[in-house]
Amino acid sequence: MATADSRIDALKVKHQQIDNTLQSEASRPFPDDNAIALLKKEKLRLKDEITRLTRH
């Protein structure tokens, strides 16, 4: 179970890093909409994987 917990922890860290990047990008004078869209998709993918792993 430690391996699954480690994986979940790593995913949560990555999720937070993406969230921080999103906030930085959104606060720029001219944010890159394409970059924001890609980051949001990746963040959602990570959230879905975290949810899937915590349910099993």
SSE class: mainly alpha
What series of H and E elements makes up the topology? HH
| Beta fraction | under 5%
Low-confidence parts, pLDDT < 50 over ≥5 residues?
none
Average of per-residue pLDDT values:
94
> How many individual domains?
1
Count of separate DSSP helical elements: 2
Instruction: Give the biggest sheet.
Output: none
How many β-strand runs?
Answer: 0
Helicity range = over 70%
Radius of gyration: 13 Å
C-alpha end-to-end distance? 11 Å
* Morphology: elongated
Structure description:
It comes from Oceanibaculum indicum. This is DUF465 domain-containing protein. InterPro entries: DUF465, DUF465_sf. The protein has helices at 2-26, 33-55. The protein has 56 residues and is an all-alpha fold. The protein has one domain. The radius of gyration is 13 Å and the shape is elongated.
Identify the notable features of this structure and list them briefly.
single chain; 56 residues; mainly alpha; 2 helices; 86% helix; elongated
